[in-house]
Design brief:
single chain; about 60 residues; alpha+beta; two-stranded antiparallel sheet; 4 strands; about 20% strand
């Protein structure tokens, strides 16, 4: 409940940080509902447990 399979790979670091691999664009599509990553960041940044967040696009190769 409240969880979807997004098809991307993630890594949960020992520090509690999360790295998402494989995003080809800034849109998530859980269960056919398109969500822009800016919407996700807005919610994450409002959580008391989150001090700061940062997203970097890294080209593979």
């Amino acid at each position: 409940p409240g969880v979807w399979i997004h098809g991307d790979f993630i890594e949960i670091r020992e520090t509690g940080g999360v790295v998402v691999y494989g995003r080809s664009d800034a849109t998530l599509n859980p269960g056919g509902v398109r969500i822009g990553t800016a919407e996700v960041y807005r919610v994450v940044e409002n959580l008391e447990e989150i001090e700061d967040s940062l997203v970097l696009g890294v080209e593979e190769g």
